Amino acid sequence: MIDGPLVRVVPLLVAITYAFVVVLCWGGGYMVELSALCLGYTLVIIAAYVFTASLVLAHAVWTRDHRGTSPSITSLIRAFLSERWRVDRGLSLWQPMLTFIIMMTAFTFFKQSTLRGAGFGYGPWIAEADRALFGTDPWRITHVVLASPWSTQALDLAYHAWFAPMTLGVAFCAFARPGSILAWRYLATYCLLWILLGSFLAYVFPAAGPIYFASFQHETGRFVGLTQSLASEDAALRAHGAAGLSALRYQQQLLVNFKHGTIMLGGGISAMPSLHNALAVLFACAAGHVSRPLGWLMTGYAGIVWIGSIHLGWH
After folding, report:
1. Euclidean distance between CA atoms 185 and 11, whole angstroms
2. Residue 35 and residue 102: Cα distance in Å, rounded?
3. What is the per-residue pLDDT across 216-243, written as a single tens digit (0 to 9) for each?
4. Which domain, by its residues, includes 122?
């Protein structure tokens, strides 16, 4: 149990401090864009809260029915809100939401403004490090082992499903027991990953993924085999009536927005370090504290995200 109101709001204070620095240093003249990002992430986290609240309420109703008690749904909601107000004036309920909105607004702006000017100079060095580590470009291994277009589509769907736990994890923190150490650690780590890995290290070691090598590096042919393989698999999927690879559409959209300097929700290009992989590990660690089976499930998902990030050319 986390004691002390100041300690409990550390994740929120970290997010506010980060946002203050970002806006103070680079936010001048971008109030419209920042407001749009803030509104967008507010709607995203509200949707996550509604979904999570529905699950919590469904569980409460199921528990009520099995215990033979008969409080109404309205009574259950009123009791939940009254308890949160009594314990911490609702702090545990609204802090995760505010932390998410502030952190994601500031980070998304930082990624598309400040990181944009850092270049991608470490891309070739990281590509060589990968080749030295694996004996070849890692994508060649995954495209041999997972040679079917349907395998690629499965990875594509799983990889981009990452945005669900990215938001729902924060919402679950809001509905955890007030003062929960796990929820506090999750939120604090969540913020630090975006700041230390997604901002600081991404600025110090700027790099775009292999899929963007031809756009930002002199060695334009280095990953042409990867782009051709993905394009071929996308065409094969479409020929069979499938939707194709969403990764290719997202990658193209991100590149167009990058070249035009557009600031958008979820935009920006940065591949070092991988926040997809870092947060997937966080999901697994948190899930393992909830239950061992859930922990193993999310560990498997983290492995899929790692493979997908290579296979689809993101990292």
Report:
1. 9
2. 11
3. 877 777 899 999 999 999 999 999 998 8
4. 5-311
